[in-house]
Design goal:
about 290 residues; alpha/beta; Rossmann fold; GMP Synthetase, Chain A, domain 3; 2 domains; 9 helices; binds guanosine-5'-diphosphate; binds potassium ion; binds magnesium ion; rRNA-binding; GTPase activity; cytoplasm
Length: about 290
């Protein structure tokens, strides 16, 4: 049997379940998941290896109209995901009716590469609604193959996976067969911390935050990590730290638990908070954090 390999890029509106799906495919929590839009800021590669195939899934930020430089770079990740795909996964959730970016939507409809349209979250709706939506999307994106799924409950995900293998092009592997992602270990540390911040702080706080891991030192028994939580203003620093440091402590404890599972090793995690004015609008800063590259 010939070897198959290719890029399968997942795009769609915020919160439809893209990261949940990618993690279900990969079987690891590579992408952080919360109920908030803009949880995913980067394009994250998840690699699934078999004896005669290698699938390179890309999770991307949800499609939005950029309001500042950070969001503009997030949309560049989405555009790039469009350009190198062998198979496109366009994900919608059961309640929605259109993509927020019309240009991109037209690109999907006129796409020459195969499009799998996944209607997600069908666990939330009635049989009648599911049938209506199926009909709706058939007419709206006639070039797509449609699947009804629940990424959360792993319903029908395997059928999508098998179909991907069928239509994947013949090609040698792009990455070593034991590799799971293209991102360095520090990236997953930053993301684990950011996930807890998204979960525990209100309003604009999560969007004003970036995490930078300054030290990642692994010995046989333990990984020592020091990370900085960057905020834009002094007041935000106070909120992150909380009364007697309790809020920051909770972030540290929960992130450490996740990281111990992820790396399967004991973790020592030190967290600092620093004010770094307007990092979201500063191109040079954004490059440092892995955007615009
Ligand atoms: P993304 O922004 O598209 O990456 O979406 P996420 O994967 O972060 O998921 C957004 C929210 O939808 C989270 O609260 C998920 O738990 C939830 N979610 C994802 N898939 C499903 C699903 O199949 N059914 C239900 N009920 N919720 C889901
Ligand atoms: K989300
Ligand atoms: Mg996401």
């Amino acid at each position: 049997m010939k070897h198959k390999a290719g890029f399968v890029n997942i795009i769609g509106n915020p919160n439809v379940g893209k990261s949940t799906l990618m993690n279900a495919f990969v079987g690891e929590r590579l992408s952080i998941i919360t109920s908030k839009a803009q949880t995913t800021r980067h394009r994250i590669l998840g690699i699934v290896n078999g004896d005669d195939f290698q699938i390179l899934f890309s999770d991307t930020p949800g499609i939005i109209k950029p309001a500042y430089e950070l969001q503009a770079s997030m949309m560049d990740f989405v555009k790039s995901a469009f350009e190198d795909a062998d198979i496109l996964i366009y994900m919608v959730e059961i309640g929605e009716t259109t993509l927020k970016d019309e240009k991109l939507f037209n690109k999907i409809k006129s796409s020459k590469i195969p499009v799998l349209l996944l209607i997600n979250k069908i666990d939330k709706s009635s049989q009648k609604e599911v049938e209506e939506k199926l009909q709706y999307w058939k007419e709206k994106v006639p070039n797509a193959e449609i699947f009804l799924i629940s990424a959360l409950e792993n319903f029908n995900v395997e059928n999508v996976f098998n179909r991907i293998i069928e239509i994947l092009p013949e090609s040698p592997a792009f990455y070593p067969k034991d590799q799971l992602t293209d991102k360095p270990e520090r990236f997953f540390v930053n993301e684990a911390i950011r996930e807890k911040i998204l979960m525990h702080y209100k309003k604009e706080i999560p969007y004003a935050v970036e995490v930078d891991t300054e030290e990642f030192f692994e010995t046989e028994k333990i990984i020592k990590i020091r990370s900085v939580i960057m905020v834009e203003r002094e007041t935000q620093k106070g909120i992150i730290i909380g009364h007697k440091g309790a809020a920051l402590k909770r972030v540290g404890v929960e992130a450490r638990k996740d990281l111990q599972k992820f790396f399967d090793k004991k973790i020592h995690l030190e967290l600092y908070v620093k004010v770094n004015k307007n990092w979201r609008s500063n191109k040079r800063q954004l490059r440092r954090f892995g955007y615009n590259d």
